[in-house]
Prior knowledge:
Blueprint: E1 5-7, H1 30-33, H2 39-56, E2 62-72, E3 78-89, E4 103-107, H3 123-126, E5 139-143, H4 167-181, E6 187-193, H5 195-206, E7 211-217, H6 226-241, H7 255-268, H8 272-278, H9 282-299, H10 302-310, E8 327-333, H11 345-349, E9 356-361, H12 376-391
Parallel strand pairs: 1-9, 4-5, 4-6, 6-7, 7-8, 8-9
Antiparallel strand pairs: 2-3, 3-5
Amino acid sequence: MRRNIRILVLAIFGFAAAGIAQNAPSARLAANALQNSQPAARTNADAQQSAEQEVMAKLVPHEGDYVVHDFKFADGETMQDLRLHYTTLGEPKRDASGRVTNAVLVLHGTGGSGRGFLRPVFAGELFGPGQLLDAATHFIILPDDIGHGKSSKPSDGMRMKFPHYDYADMVRGEYELVTEGLSVNHLRLVMGTSMGCMHTWMWGEAHADFVDAMMPLACLPVEIAGRNRMTRKMIMDSVKADPAWDGGNYTTQPVKGLRAALDVELLMVSSPLQWQKQNPTGAQADAFLERSLEGMMRNDDANDLLYAFDSSRTYNPEPELGKITAYVMHVNSADDFVNPPELGIAQREIQKVAHGKFVLLPITDQTRGHGTHTLAAVWKGYLEELLKESER
C-alpha cells in the first residue's frame, strides 16, 4: 500500500464529545447533543466546554458583508447584488513582496455557516493561544456560502426565483470574497467539512498556485452518485411532494414534506454506535428523534434546503485531481454514512494527488459518524502533520 494511503489507529484524546458535531448537515442536531448524553459524558463534556470557553472568550470575531455586483452564475443567471457574509479572526500578515502568509480559509457544510466553526469543539481546539491555528498569528476566514447563513439565499424573498447556484458558483463566490473583499492573495491552508470538504478539492484544482495546504474532511473527490445521490434526491423529492410547498410559494413551511426530508438528513449524519449507547431503550430513541426533528424544523426553510442539496448536482473533481499541487491531508471516518469506507474511493483517488495522503479514522468513542469532521480533537494531530509538511 502506498505511503499516501494511511489507516489511523486513533489515540484516546480524553475528549468526551457529548453528541453529534456541529456544522452541516449535522448543525441542527447540535442543540440536542448534551441533552441526549449519558450523565458521566455530560459531566466530562461540561468540564471540557468550560475550559474551551475560557479560550473562546479571548477570540474577537469580526463579521461583515461583501457585495458582488452583477454576479453571473454558471447557468447564465445573473444577480445584481449578491451578499456574501463572513466572519474573520486575526489579521493578515504579508511578506516583503506583499504576499499574505498566514490566511486560513475554513469552509462549512450543507446548511451550515461560518460561525459554526466558533463552537468550542472546533475553535476551542484550534484557534486559541498556542494552538495550531492561533488567531493571534493567523488570519482565519469563515465564509457563509451562497444560499447559507447570512449570505443571499432563497428565503430572503426570491424563493424559487433565486438563481440556481451550484458548487462552482459557491467556490467562485468564496474566491471573490477572499481576493476582492478581503484582499488576500494567498492561502496558507484551505480546509472544509462535508460540502466544504468538496469545495476544498475544487479550490486545489481551480487555484493551484494560491494554496499551500488542503485538509478535506468527510467527503469524496468524485461525482456524487450511488446512495449519496439517492438520499439527496429523497430529501428534495420529499419537499416537492408536499402540496403545501406550492412550487415554493408557501406562506408557512410545508411541514410534512420538510419533516420527511429531515428524517433522511438525520439518517445521513447518524452515528449508530453512539446513538445506541445514548438511547438504549425504545422510549429514549423515540424521544431523541422527536427532539432532533423539532430543533431542525425550527431553523429550516424548505426552499433553502432544496437549493442547498441541489447545488451538489455538478460536483465532480475527479478528472482534474492531478492538477493539485498543494499538500493534501484527506480525512474520513469509518462510521460515516455519507462516505462509507467500503467504497474504496478515497484510497484510490488520493493516488492521483502528488502530495496527497488519506487517513481513515476507525470507529471509537470519539467519532460521531459524518459529524466527526467538526471534532477537531480527533484529527488535529493530522492537521499538525500537514502544516509541517507543507512548510517544506
